[in-house]
Each structure stands twice: as C-alpha cells, then as structure tokens.
What we know:
The protein has 4 helices and 2 strands; from the N terminus they run H-E-E-H-H-H. The chain is mainly alpha-helical.
Amino acid sequence: xxxxxxxxxxxxxxxxxxxxxxxxxxxxxxxxxxxxxxxxxxxxxxxxxxxxxxxxxxxxxxxx
Length: 64
C-alpha cells in the first residue's frame, strides 16, 4: 500500500485538500490531532471512516 492508495486529491472534495481515500477527512486533521496531544486511537474514534491502519501507514509508511 502506497500513498496513492491512502490519500486522494480531488478539486470536488474539500476544494482539493488531501483527504484519506474514500472519505472526506483531511489528512492534515490527523497531524493536528497529534500536535494537540491526542493519540491515533482517539483520531480514528472521532473519524471512524479512517482506519488505524490507514493512519499508521500515512504516519509511518508501508513498513508499519
């Protein structure tokens, strides 16, 4: 799984902001949550359309 399997950019979805593929959840939201001290688990709890695997792979790459 590479980044094109996880992230999509479409002008018709949130004005072209990178989002998790198949969702309307901006990738930057994950980083904002982490910057505020939340865990990945809390992020996926708040955004159930994003799986922990998807979040981990965005953060750590395909080797996680």
